[in-house]
Write a structure and sequence with these properties.
The complex is a heterodimer of chains A (268) and B (260). Chain A has 268 residues and is of the alpha+beta class. In chain A, strands 1-3-2-8-5-7-6-4 form an eight-stranded antiparallel β-barrel. Helices cover 42% and strands 26% of the residues of chain B. In chain B, 42% of the residues are buried. Chain B has 260 residues and is of the alpha+beta class. Chain B is globular and about 55 Å long. In chain B, β6 and β7 form a beta hairpin. In chain B, α7 crosses α8. Chain B starts with a helix and ends in a 6-residue tail after the last strand. The longest helix of chain B is centred in the C-terminal third of the chain and has 22 residues. Classes of the chains: A alpha+beta (268), B alpha+beta (260). At the A-B interface, α3, β4, α6 and α9 of A face α2, α4, β4 and α7 of B.
Chain lengths: 268, 260
């Protein structure tokens, strides 16, 4: 029931956003078209590649005690932190940051760096010597939320696992067709079979473009497996995937998925 | 002389920025470029020509109509996965980055001129993938500066740092003389970007232009023996690192229709 209310309100939000949206004209670049803007979040997804050792604890301390509180003070929440459960290169941490606007990618981090408590509590991490860095590298990407799921929806706290899925598409046209398919039924089927959808993002900047990335939560890996079995057998799904133009061969060229568990302090 | 005037004016601009209140996002918008740098992975064959036709006939004119100008298109001369194309887009705001695809799709001329590329079947796409990164122009070089047309090569350099603080220290070092020394050594600096989104962060990427690879080698020699450069690297502020732990560089050649 709650999810239905959410969906209804988010549809209303995206409908009005299309009308309200207008980019300020910056030297001819803005022309106020309907598009990504108010109502649709932007996602910064960072992957901190770590090596075993004290850096893992140091990076977690930094995120929990310095970065997330400062991001929250800058108005950014909920911030998700996830550990790799099944996927390449453990240990690593995913940091999921929902931004209210594209420009927030810049201004939120500016505010964080100007935050005294952030600098104090994050000092060990921020001032780490080059000879002993807490993390190896950070890979990041930037997305805009789908129209039908314009805001992140964290699942209830408690036992939960997350699946992060990236669908590569052969062309941008195929990418948009796949997004339309999510928007016209696929997300509803996820909910029906028991998944908790967390976010859906059309990639703006990142590797392997064009693609899209989304996240589903389940209570456990066992539940996740059951949900996918129910999804595969769902009559609505069978109907949707047999719609002309919607076959995987036509619109999805490659899938990457990883299973994640939330850090104890994750807000998602 | 022209370059010196340019540097003087950019320094004035960045000084003005520094004193602006933190909420000066609108001013930043007008005063600073944001760069999207794409690396298109291509495969040998007819599709290379389709890619170039698309960029020349559909994408660049449409981007220019939106005020995204100049657009750089470069072939890889020395670097991985040739054939590949580097495409550099200078934006005036991050909103412009976010709305690009939508605005392109609304541009009837773009859709018409790019039809063959845009409607390529999934079984026979025009390119394999592209990877992209997003940057914010340095205060000391807030706008892209295209070199004069004619014979020219480009060097694209990415400097990785072990932490954001070292990354910002290196950005400050560029603004404290390093860019001036490039110019004095014979390079034409094109753009300097602090990475906001991308691979192997924290890092920064910049681009230098010069007439030929031979001139490039000479200019680097002049750079490394420059007295100010030696003083800069020895200064306490910039020698506590290393503030750079890893460098990636490529040689690029402009496509005939590149605006950079």
């Amino acid at each position: 029931m709650k999810r239905r209310d959410f969906l209804a309100s988010s549809l209303a939000a995206s409908a009005s956003a299309g009308m309200a949206y207008g980019e300020p004209a910056a030297e001819g670049q803005g022309r106020g078209s309907a598009g990504p803007g108010q109502g649709r979040e932007f996602y910064e997804l960072r992957n901190y590649q770590l090596h075993r050792g004290p850096g893992v604890q140091l990076t977690n301390d930094y995120l929990r005690d310095a970065a997330i509180p400062a991001l929250n003070r800058a108005g950014i929440k909920p911030v998700g932190v996830f550990e790799m459960l099944v996927g390449p290169q453990s240990p690593s941490l995913y940091l999921l940051i929902p931004h209210p606007s594209a420009n927030s990618l810049l201004t939120a981090w500016e505010r964080v760096r100007e935050d005294k408590a952030y600098q104090e509590r994050g000092a060990t991490f921020l001032d780490a010597p080059a000879s002993n860095p807490p993390f190896v590298r950070v890979e990041s990407e930037f997305m805009v939320a789908f129209e039908t799921h314009p805001r992140i929806t964290p699942p209830a706290q408690g036992p939960r696992v997350f699946e992060l899925r990236t669908y590569d598409n052969a062309t941008k046209k195929a990418n948009l067709t796949k997004i339309k398919m999510f928007n016209t039924g696929e997300i509803d089927i996820f909910k029906k079979v028991g998944f908790h959808p967390v976010f859906f993002g059309e990639k703006l900047i990142g590797p392997r473009w064009p693609n899209l990335t989304y996240m589903l939560a389940s209570e456990s890996v066992e539940d996740r497996n059951k949900h996918w079995a129910a999804f595969g057998a769902d009559p609505d799904w069978k109907k949707l995937r047999s719609t002309p133009g919607y076959s995987d061969d036509e619109i999805v060229s490659n899938i990457t998925n990883v299973l994640l568990r939330p850090a104890a302090y994750s807000q998602v | 002389m022209k370059r010196r005037d340019f540097i003087a004016s950019t320094l004035a601009v960045s000084a003005g920025l520094a004193s602006a209140p933190a909420q000066g996002a609108d001013e930043n918008k007008a005063a600073r470029d944001y760069y999207e740098l794409r690396l298109y992975q291509l495969t040998n064959g007819a599709k290379v020509k389709l890619m170039h036709n698309y960029l020349r006939e559909a994408a660049i004119p449409a981007l220019n109509r939106m005020g995204i100008n100049p657009v750089g298109v470069f072939n890889t001369v020395v670097g991985p996965i040739s054939p590949s194309l580097h495409v550099l887009l200078p934006y005036r705001s991050l909103e412009s980055v976010a709305t690009l695809e939508e605005r392109l799709r609304d541009d009837a001329e773009y859709v018409k001129n790019g039809a063959e590329f845009l409607n390529a079947p999934a079984s026979d796409p025009a390119y394999v993938r592209y990877e992209s990164s997003l940057m914010k122009a340095f205060d000391c070089h807030p706008r892209i500066t295209a070199p004069p047309k004619g014979k020219r090569i480009f060097e694209l350099r990415t400097y990785e740092s072990s932490s954001k603080n070292y990354n910002l220290n290196k950005v400050e070092m560029f603004g404290s003389g390093e860019v001036d020394i490039f110019i004095r050594s014979g390079f034409h600096p094109v753009f300097f970007g602090e990475k906001l989104i991308g691979e192997r962060m924290p890092n920064l990427t910049y681009m230098l232009s010069i007439g030929s690879i031979e001139e490039r080698d000479k200019a680097w020699q002049a750079f490394s023996s420059d007295a100010q450069w030696k003083a800069l690297t020895a200064s306490r502020k910039f020698s506590s690192g290393p503030n750079v732990v890893n460098i990636t560089n490529y040689f690029l050649a402009p496509a005939p229709y590149s605006q950079v």
